[in-house]
Structures are given as C-alpha cells and as structure tokens.
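QUALITY CONTROL LOG
STEP: pairwise intake check
CHECKER ROLE: data steward
CRITERIA: each record must contain a sequence immediately followed by its structure tokens, with no blank fields

ENTRY 1 OF 2
RESULT FIELD BELOW
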Amino acid sequence: MIQSDDIYITPIVNKDFRGVRIDKFLSECFADLSRSRLQKLIESGNVVCDDVTIADNAYKVKEGESFVINLPEAEDALPQPEDIPLDIVYQDEAIIVVNKPAGMVVHPAAGVSKGTLVNALLFCCRDLSGIGGVKRPEIVHRIDKETSGLLVVAKNDNAHRILCEQFAEHSIERTYYAFCYGVPTPMNGIIEGDIGRNPYDRKKMAIVQRNGKRAVTHYQVVESYGKVAAKVKCNLETGRTHQIRVHLASKGNNLLGDKVYVKSKKISDKKIADEVRKYLNEFPRQALHAQSLGFIHPVSGERMIFERDLPEDLMRLQTVLRGI
C-alpha cells in the first residue's frame, strides 16, 4: 500500500477480502484512518476504483480491485455552489449529461475546492437528493482535468447505483478522439495491456505485468498527417485510469500536449515551419476529447447516446495538422 499526505492507495484485494464491505476493507488497510472517517470519505466521493467513484459504504470489494483514497484538505463540510456556465447536453429528474471543458476538475479534492464541475452542478441543479439527504451530485465516472468531453452525473442514489453497475460491467459505450505523435501501426487494432500504478511514480499509470487490471482499447486512425501525427478514434472496452494515454504511449504514439506521459522525441522535421512545430510540440493540454457516451437510462431503461464535436482548441489543432 502507498500513503502520502493527500493520497492512500490500497493493495490489490485478494481472495481473503473478497465480498467484504469497502469501509471495512479500507479500515483494515489503514489503521490511522477511523472507520467513521473512511465512511465519510466514501460518501463524499473521495474513493475511486479506476475511473469509477465508489460512494456506497455497503459496496462489496472484488478480488483484483485496488482503491485510491483522496484526502481533502480541512474545509467546509460540503462543496459550495458556484455560478459557473456549463454545456448541459441533457438532464431529467435522474441524470445530467455535461460536456466538460478542458481545464475543469470534476470533483473537489486536496488543493482544489472551487471551480469544479461539482461546484457548478450544485448551483444549476435544484432537484438533487443524494446520500443521507445531503444535496449533491453523484459523480459516476471522471475524465481528467485536461480532457474535454462528455460525462454523466446521477442526481440520486438509485440512478448512481444503476449507472455504477453499468460501468462495472463495461457496458457503457465511450468513444474518444485523440491526436498523437506519429501514426500508430497498424492503422487500426486492439491494444491490450494490464494497467496499474507505476511502481516508480505514483502519479502515473503504466502497463504492468503484476497487480494490474485488464485494459482493452480499440483504436482506428481516422486521419494521418504525413508521418508527423494522427487523429485516432478510441473505443474503450474497459475504463482504466489514463487508459488511452497509457496505451497509445506504449506504442510510441503519446498524445500531443500530454504533460504526464511526455514524448521524449517530439516533432523536429525542418520542412515544417518553426511556428507550427512550436505550436504542436507545446500544445497546452493533452489532445483528448470524450466525443460520445452511451448507456441505459437508470429509470426508463431506454438506450441513450450523446455526442459532442471537438472543442475549439482541438478544431484549431486539427486545422493546423491538415495544413502540414
């Protein structure tokens, strides 16, 4: 297990703990955190397994799972509503689908208590229920701060539970578009490689031989820009933390703008204008967009699919690449 001032990472659940309540399992792992505090951390959305928030203390852990606990700084008990404009794609009494901009954190955490998606949702959603009567949006899954695109948020416990089950079963449809260095070979295929915490850098994920989780990405090159870069469509069969970024990097096709999984050799072709090379090599955020999201509605049982085109910064990036 790993501990620091703001993050705790559990060991992999073995067969001895299979089926144990998550609050009990976490209390067995970390003696310095009381069970009551762990329960509050779970309820407040600070316990994550891969990209899925575990917000139910009665959740039964499964063999092979590992959990990350984010310890927020001492502050007010609840995030505060903030009048932040949101691109709301759809909402009803049970769910809200949002097109998150790049640069917005999904959930308050250590050092980030304002300006998050949760703060914005608390302001714009007046029909939240939530755990124990506390009115807050239930985060079902997350996308990275610097990734743009679609995510679904539950407005009540029942919707949250049903959507989490779909994520756990990998029945959610998620399509991303990424701009990467070079052109993946072959032009379409499947990347498989268990993903786990990087043993040398806890802030990174990596393809690992042991203690990882099955991860499968289906990809297709939809545009190539000479040998310089490519636009790649990625469909997630599984949803592991940083999955697309790690999988494409494993092929040598790191995302443009990725500040964590950095490409060691960037674009150096002298045939490309200096200002264009500089723009591409210094793109300010990872070039990744969650373009479509499909799931079964937790109340109606209807199959729903939502799409949002590339945001303005990635459209400009695409235009620049097409001009090479």
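ENTRY 2 OF 2
RESULT FIELD BELOW
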Amino acid sequence: MHSTWDKRLFTQVDNSPLVLFRIFFGFLLACEAFGHIALGAVRKHFLEPQFTFTFIDFSFLEVLLAPLLYGLFALMGIAGLMIMLGYKYRVAMTFYAVAWSYVYLLQKTSYNNHYYLLMLLNYLMIFLPAHRSVSLDATLNPALRKEHLSRWIYWFIIAFLFIIYSYASIAKFYPDWIDLTFPKHLMKIRAADWSILQHNWAHQAIMVYGLTFDLLVVPLLLWRRTRMAAVIASFFFHIFNSIIFKIGIFPYLALAFLVFFFKPNTIHKRFLKKKNFYDQQEVIVPNYKKPLMIIATGFLLVMTLLPLRHWIIKDDVLWTEEGHRLSWRMMLRNRAGFATYYVEDKNTGDKQPVRLSDYLTRKQMAHVKTKPDFMWQFAQHLKESYASQGKEIAVYVDSKVSINGRPYQQFTDATVDLAATKWNRWKHHEWILPSQLHDNAD
C-alpha cells in the first residue's frame, strides 16, 4: 500500500511535456553553440583578450588554442542537435554540460544570469528521462522506450522556475525601479532608437510589467482560468526582451518552459500526436527514493538560499556587487565609472599609472573600472606579470562609480594595496568605500 506522498510524487504521467522540451532545448543549445562561432563571440570573448577573467575559484582554466576552441563549440553544436533528436542523449547532454561549464567559468566579462541558468539546466537534464520517447535512442533500443515519468519531475521543474521568477521580481522592489529611475535609464542606454520607449508612460508600463510578470507568471500559468492570458503575457514579455535587449536564446528558452504548465494530454494532442499516450496512472516508487528526494530538495533549498547571501554581507549589493551573481538579480542596474590603476615598485618606491589598454579589451576595461571582483583579479594579474620580471609591486586603484546615472562617487580606497588583499565571497571588502546611494536619494 502506497502512502499519500508516494501517490502524489510517484504516480506515473505521460512524458510528452518533457519530451517536447528536450526537442526545443536541444535546438536552442545548438543555436547557442553555432551562434557563438557565427556571430564572432568565440573570437571576441576568448581569443582577442590577452587573458580572460575567470570565476575567481577557477583561475586554473586556460583558453584553448583557436582551432581547438572553435572545434569545441562546433562539437557543442552537434551535441545540441543530438539532444534534440534524442541520439546518444546522455552522452551528448553530459558533454554539453561539461563544455558549457568550461566556457562559462572561463570568462565572466559577458556574464549574465541566463548563462548560469543554462549551466544548471544542462546538468539537470542529464538525469531526467527526456530521451525515452520520440527519440533515436528509443527507436534503436526499444527496451529503453517509456511513455511516462514520475509526477514529481514536473513539480520539481515548476518549483525551480518559481524560485527564479520570484527572485527576479523581489529584486526589483527597490527605489530605483519603483520611482522609474532605472527603467528610464535602461531605455535610454539600451533602446535609444525606440522613441516610443522614451516616454514616461512607457517607463511606468515597464516598471509595472517587470514587477508583476515575474511575480505572478508561474501562479497564473498553474491556474487553468488564467493560463492562456499568462501565455500571451509571456510571449509579449520575452519577445520584447529579445528584440530590445538581444539576449540570445534565453527568451525562447523561457517560452519553451511553458510546456510544463499544460496537461500532458494537451501537449500530446497538439505537438506529438504520433506518440503513444500514457494514462495508466501507476505508482512506481524507486528503490532510491530517499536519496532522490534529499538531492532534489537540497537543490531547491540551495537555489532558495543562495540569492539571500547578500543580506549577510555589509552594505548595499547594488553598490558593492557582493552577492549579486548567481542570485537572479536581472535588469536592475547600470554601472558606469572611471578608474586609475597605480603600480608601485616596493623596492624603489616608484609609482606609475597603468595604461589599461595595454592589457585589456574595451569591455574588460569597463568592468575593471566599476566591479570589485574584476578590480581585485586585475590587481593579481598585474602582480604576477611584474613578478615574472623580477619586480615586487603594490597595486592601488582610484575608482569612481555611478549607479543608474547618479553622480559619480568614490568607490575604492585608493590607499589599499589590492595586490596584497585576499578575496572573500562571504564578507564585505573594506577597500570598497561605504555606499551613499540612499543619502543621495534623500
């Protein structure tokens, strides 16, 4: 006799939504990889820079030689097509997950939350049975074929999406979004050619829509009476973002998630009519139920807690950036600034400014002027570079930063040697001067 929770979690339902998502997902993965080659992102992000800003704990990663790197992205594109077709699915999915992790962690100059989401999804999809139907794997190996999966898988995916959208909305409940400071600034710098988006009513609409869509879209999709309205709102929201912000495959990936909010028979009838439909509602409890539930719950718990870490770090994350990444803080701020780096020879006391263009691309320079982890990493790079010449140096940074078009404020303590400091992801760095954002708002 099965318990109530076993029936809720492990009742078997048709797998059409997951199968269809796999097809969309594989196609988008292929587009992402081939697009990096075709649009020049491989050259611009990896090959042109003298060095890349890795995630701090992954400084051991090195950029492959150009032919190998282009080959890697080509293989990723092929793996994406294999995922779409369901051919050698788990091998292709594992390869893409590892390869994407490499290129994601190798450079963060073009970081965005969407790349982070893609990395997480890659690993999750390895373990989901998305290839057991409408796939070459199931055709070549009929013993693999199954038309069903446990209900908890759909619940897990929806819970994950709810966490992402909720944090994206909650983060917007701050003064610059509510009083239109950032929506206005955002449209000015990202949609200057769209005169219709420069009006105050447009900024108000963007402010309200951005808040309410992220906060309500998952609940509205779950309720049958509001589902189609939420689908229409989703298409408008994500296509708008795609056109205005040009953020790659993410808007279309977000739209692909809609399949999980419809009943399996609806997805089956509209998209996969030739697939056998499962409606037996068996309850199949796996032998590994306990570790499975611990891992799934643990993952969702980490996703819930990780975005909160900036609350235990001193000062305003909007100013310090500490705790900003991996937190679904999307479309919240624009940072501008200027900085002078000084290198001081510890033996002679000679102090000289650094010409950033000797070391960095234009995009990298924008980051080392405004973001503290980039500042620290560049200081370490300068230290290593001079050490290879037999010189021991100190690195000082005099930086001023503007948030969302505000007046520039002193960001760094220019008397601190950044080359001699350590990076701590869980604590505030005192060389970042206190925020004056709220003082200016008053």
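INTAKE CHECK: passed for both entries
DESCRIPTIVE NOTE, ENTRY 2: The chain has a mean pLDDT of 96.
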